[in-house]
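$ ./design --mode recover --in tokens.txt
reading tokens...
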């Protein structure tokens, strides 16, 4: 019998913690309190941080954003455009407990492969995206 395997790259815990720190720094500059979740390529949580006074639901939402982004390899906000004319698909995906189309979930790629994702929640949608993007850009 032939056994086939694949090699997968993932973010390290240290990278996940770095991303959280940068996102927090950006949130502080914006004057907001956020929650951040970093997941590996399989969707397992590597780091999750809640700033003091962040909205309570933001922790669960940040996880949904990261999980959705890593699951499909696209930013969560893109679902708003992709599903604008597809109400049945939107309704079906919304029934999935870990799916969200709210902006603030962004996949993290390295050498052409998705190695994880970040999800940020607690500010406006654009502020969440800005915090996530600033964190990812700090890796280059």
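writing sequence...
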């Amino acid at each position: 019998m032939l056994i086939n395997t694949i090699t997968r790259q993932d973010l390290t815990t240290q990278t996940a913690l770095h991303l959280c720190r940068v996102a927090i720094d950006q949130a502080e500059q914006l004057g907001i309190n956020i929650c951040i979740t970093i997941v590996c390529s399989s969707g397992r949580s590597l780091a999750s941080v809640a700033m003091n006074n962040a909205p309570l639901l933001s922790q669960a939402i940040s996880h949904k954003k990261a999980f959705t982004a890593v699951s499909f390899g696209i930013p969560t906000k893109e679902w708003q455009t992709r599903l604008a004319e597809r109400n049945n698909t939107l309704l079906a995906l919304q029934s999935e407990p870990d799916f969200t189309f709210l902006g603030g979930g962004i996949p993290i790629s390295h050498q052409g492969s998705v190695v994880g994702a970040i999800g940020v929640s607690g500010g406006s949608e654009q502020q969440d995206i800005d915090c996530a993007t600033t964190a990812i850009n700090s890796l280059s």
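exit 0
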